[in-house]
Amino acid sequence: MTLSYFNLLPSRPHILGVWIAFVLSGGVIRVHADNIQFNTDVLDVKERENIDLGRFSRGGFIMPGNYNMAVKINTQELPEQEVLFIPPESDLNGSEACISPQLVEQFGLKPAVLSEVAWWNEGQCLVVSSLPGLTARGELGTSTLYINLPQIYLEYTSANWDPPSRWEAGIPGLLLDYNVNTHTQRQLKNNSQSYNLSGNGTVGANLGAWRLRANWQARLDHQTGSGQPTKRSLDWSRYYAYRAIPRLRARLTMGEDYLTSDIFDSFRFAGLSLVSDDNMLPPNLRGYAPEVTGVARTNAKVVISQQGRVLQETYVAVGAFRIQDLNDAISGRLDIRVEEQDGSVQEFQMQTASIPYLTRPGSLRYKIAAGRPSDFRHRTNGPLFTTGEFSWGISNGWSMYGGGVVGGDYNALAGGIGRDLMMLGALSFDMTHSRASLPHEKSALSGSSYRMSYSKRFDDYDSQVTFAGYRFSERKYMTMGEYLDARTYGTRPQSSKEMYTITFNKQFRDLGLSAYLNYSHQTYWDRPTSDNYSLTLSRYFDLWRFKNLSLSLNGYRNKNNGRNDDGMHLSLSMPFGRRGSISYSSSLNRNDNSHQMSYHDNVNGHDYYQVNSGVSRSGVMASGSYTHQGDLSQIGVNASYQEGHYTSVGLSLQGGVTATAKGAALHRAGSHGGTRILVDADGVAGIPIRGSGAATRTNRFGKAVVSDVISYYRNRVSIDLDRLPDNAEVTRSVAQATLTEGAIGYRRFEVVAGEKAMAVIRLADGSYPPFGASIFNRKQQEVGIVNDGGSVYLSGMNAGEQMSAHWAGSEQCVIDLPLVPLNPGVSVLPELLLLCHQPIDKSSEPEQ
Known about the structure:
single chain; mainly beta; Immunoglobulin-like; Ubiquitin-like (UB roll); 24-stranded antiparallel barrel; globular; PapC_N_sf; transport; cell outer membrane
């Protein structure tokens, strides 16, 4: 119900006296079995015989019929669905919710409990008493079915995670996500100008549990006066389809994919795979995601790719950066490219690492794939192969894992063991042996690779080794990727020998200092050693009247092909104003050193900007950036100037469009091709919707898409009541959804939009509707209850619309609202006189 009975009270004070007198004088004179009889003599109304209180005669009574309701199980909410209310066998005049087998499946009952439940109404309704302690109560005022049952009946749940029985595959639909960046730069020395346009994204369709996806990336480069033609490229980098298999806690993928393995190196192939998905586990049991760190010398674009496929493009401000939002399914070697606005480029590689391969006791994790290796142009270029791996939790502390690749001229076998050393950390060791036959080799190449991994948090020392690893590969050992390169190009590049990696965190709480170390050392059989390491020290402190100052020092070295790239970055920042901050930074590297002052401000949660000014060896420099989190997309603008060298301007646009049979909307960017929720505000525009990030508003059709949704995680979407327009009301402002990966969820909020006013309703014979009659709008939302003399406080009034009056259990007459819009600027609207007439039967009208 949209309007509570007591919505009447502020506008008609004498009604308050009616209800108080009604209760205090014994208006309810007898209560038995939820039947309520009223003493109407105490009511201060003119026509006591013209009263319809039948709807109030039973406490919580709901007329038999179908109702769209949200379902709340204890404190957790299920999606809105149709709930049938029917008379129970023991009381044909009563009404109770028929809890269907489909609804019971969403409870998340343990199998043993589910096998003991009983049914009635030909197996269509749950016998509530078959589950002692279960209660069900419907409430029309909030359109909610409240179900309470003992937690012991339910499968494991956590604060933000639901069991598979509550996961939703979403609704069918189409989607297009994009990230477009354009950049122009003018060189002041030779007055030349260059243009660059790049983008990437995903096109997709959802059909039931299946997700059909195609990834694209494009680039255009042009330089005036160079004599070189404009370079253009548009590549559909990957075509694939996937779906969740909840019973197996796995993901099935068909098409072009990248091998996801904790044992073997990743490579691209066309085929199918079945991989146990850690994302389907509760959050505290999920895996590790890689992160990318570095230092940008100017406002720069960081491009993270793998085997030619762009995984992420993002702009970072000058100084140290740390990108932590990569998917935890990414494994293997990543290519990092930092494109500076002065035209210089930093390139390096990082090996994504995983913590020691441990599995909980009794659990089995597995990955199976089959197909043929393929290249970026969708051409297969290798033998048919099959690969599989597993990890089994033998006992509390021991895990065994292994796997193999069988592919004709290339075969590999791996085995290992992991041990939880309790207070000493976690350790794993494995060996992989490969055998490969190449056309230009007289005999097969056979070799082994040995790996050891370690992870430990030292609570006594407030430090943590997130990952430490060592790997040694014999000269004739080959990964599948190296085999494919050697088979295709006749050479074997980057023959790895030894690799050390470590990620270490340490807190010096007495000093308020934290340290972060990332180190990687790689040697090869046929090329110089490569070293990459960085050390970050940061401290928060107060100085005199200045509070919450932050000091950070980052030093790094990248050594590739015998050449060192050393650098250091120092920054000091302090809060300034309500949401802003002011900072000083200094950078030193092989080619330059600079000093900058910056100001950053978050204007309103949707708009952010930063301005920088400083000096370097080359002269004065200045830069700035502005980002707007719009309802339809995220827009970013940046500009830079370097005295005597260049000026540059960049623009970025990130967003998407989602279209379904329920509606469509443009929206801000989320994960490309990822999970999202389409929110329907009952066709009302401008309703503020909030997910876990910045709020958005419904479009002109009353639709909005929340894109910051996490798969297999209980997500909340809500209407921001603080920003709700004055002419709108809602019965329920919060909804929850737990969606499978890539799903398009759907949630509808019942919104009553329109002006509010007092009115008097008369019937055609001059009488009034009975006291207690209900007024409904065209959406069948209750917008008012009739008082004595036909007076009613109406909400949701829109010019030219038609409302209906209901009493005695059915519609009795209709009301035509004035064609002239009500004046929303008037604080007290004059009382309206409205005629309630019989509806016109258009089917009986004579044909023209």
